[in-house]
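User: My collaborator sent over this chain with a note saying "see what the structure looks like." That's all I know about it. Can you take a look?
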Amino acid sequence: MRQEGMENIIRRIQSGNQALREELIYYYRSNILEIAAGVCGRKLEWENDDELSISLLAFNEAIDTYNPSYGKEFHNYARLVIKSRLIDHFRKEARHKHLPLEELNEDNIVVQKWEVESAWKKYNEEQLALERAEEMALFQKMLQSFGISFCQLEISCPKHQDTREILIEIAELIASRKDFIEYVNRNKQLPLKELSLVSGISKKVIKRGRQYIIAVFLIISNMEFKHLRSFFSLPCKNYSNTESAKKQVSGWKGGVRDE
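Assistant: Without extra context I'll predict from the sequence alone. Here is the result:
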């Protein structure tokens, strides 16, 4: 199934089309079996293995919770949910029996331990990828509200380190002051005159770096952008904190700084 068609099918099921849900489950039955067997590291049978029942419930959960804005195709999202629920099952079984994971099956000690550790590692990696995709989708949406695309941002990114540092300081200044934050969010523009007066940096430099300044401002003023903050090597500060804001503003020195 094409992804566009799949998204429409999921929406219809989430709206209450149970017949279509059954059709989709039947269509994915072999995929569910393949995913579950891969996590468990052994052949599974629908009639005999609880892991497949758990996987089927997980697939239903994936149908109910899937959102295209996650930036992940449904098949990959369903795989992630199934793996996660199977890992939860392994851990609950271990706690219930008061046994370490490697003792779940005396005849299969090494494999059983490897199953869980490998699946858990893959889950963490996929969860990280999902978080990054969600961040990028939200970031793209915010940028678009300012009329900025990823392509434009890449082109406008300063090539010189000292220029980047200046523009990052401007973004930090905006994020540290409520009046600047409100102005930028309301007008989708920078208060060039006021920023120049407060920072001592010329309006020409600020205007030329508008897209980069706005991008950095969005990242540092939204704490959910932890991966983007790391990617841009930006500081992790709480700019909503009053004392932090005062210190940030007081850190500016007079004088005009041009490129």
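A starting point for your reply to your collaborator: Residues 3-135 form one domain.
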